């Protein structure tokens, strides 16, 4: 099978566009192809499919075989991929996802996609739709106890469920220790992505993510959107922030109409033939 390896600020994916849509065990394929030391290695498998209502349809399967509704870094990679492969010939496109229709806009430099601006829609604060067992009035100001610590958190859905953990200083060991505890906490019936958030100033934040179904990732686009929204709603930052990540920056704008706009890069790493095991 022909594959392309891509990443959005270190959040990496195997892109696969089947010649014909047919029944395939994508969860098993994702677990196999995403294995870091014995296969291609990635945070997830993205499948490019035709859509009856949009320009293309995206499915994303996490490294553990679970399917995600959407992925911010993944949608930028997807948009670059379908444009440069000639699957979609528009620079402004509509992508069908399990989280609804996403609208990326490509920024071109000499015909090559240098950045992607994405209308990420509006955040959801209804506990039933996040979903979380935290009461409706508390989702932006709550506490979660994990192990020996109690954390100041906010919860919302920015395409997928996110929990924002506010800390004075991000400690990587804490991301690895407490991230999986919060991900699988009883308060989150469908698990949750966990983003540790450090506010630098009114226009800058740092985010480190433990991703549901993938573990520690270098970046999470929907997580950065969720962090920017939570910071703005708490009055900690302006509505436009630079989010600093391990491999670069994302620009997130939380518009007055509550639309989340994300701007960032997508990179192709390599292309090749993957020989499925067995």
Q: What does it look like?
A:
By secondary structure, this protein is of the alpha+beta class. The protein folds into 2 domains: 2-116 and 265-273, Diaminopimelate Epimerase, Chain A, domain 1 (Roll); 136-258, Diaminopimelate Epimerase, Chain A, domain 1 (Roll), CATH 3.10.310.10. It is 17% helix and 41% strand. It has an 18-stranded mixed β-sheet that branches. A hairpin with a 5-residue loop joins strand 16 and strand 17 (260-264). The radius of gyration is 18 Å and the shape is globular. It starts with a strand and ends in a 5-residue tail after the last strand. The model has no long low-confidence stretch (mean pLDDT 96).
Give helix and strand order, one letter per element, not per position: EEHEEEHEEEEEEHEEEHEEEE
Structural class category: alpha+beta
Radius of gyration: 18 Å
Q: Fill in the CATH topology of the largest domain.
A: Diaminopimelate Epimerase, Chain A, domain 1
Distance between the termini: 14 Å
CATH superfamily of the largest domain: Diaminopimelate Epimerase, Chain A, domain 1
CATH class designation of the largest domain = Alpha Beta
Total domains, how many?
2
Estimate what percentage of residues fall within beta strands: 35-45%
* Largest sheet report: 18 strands, mixed
Instruction: Specify the CATH architecture of the largest domain.
Output: Roll
* Oligomerization status of the protein chains: single chain
Mean pLDDT metric: 96
Number of strands: 18
Give the overall shape, derived from the CA principal axes.
globular
Number of helical segments? 4
Q: Which regions are unreliable across 5 or more consecutive residues at pLDDT < 50?
A: none
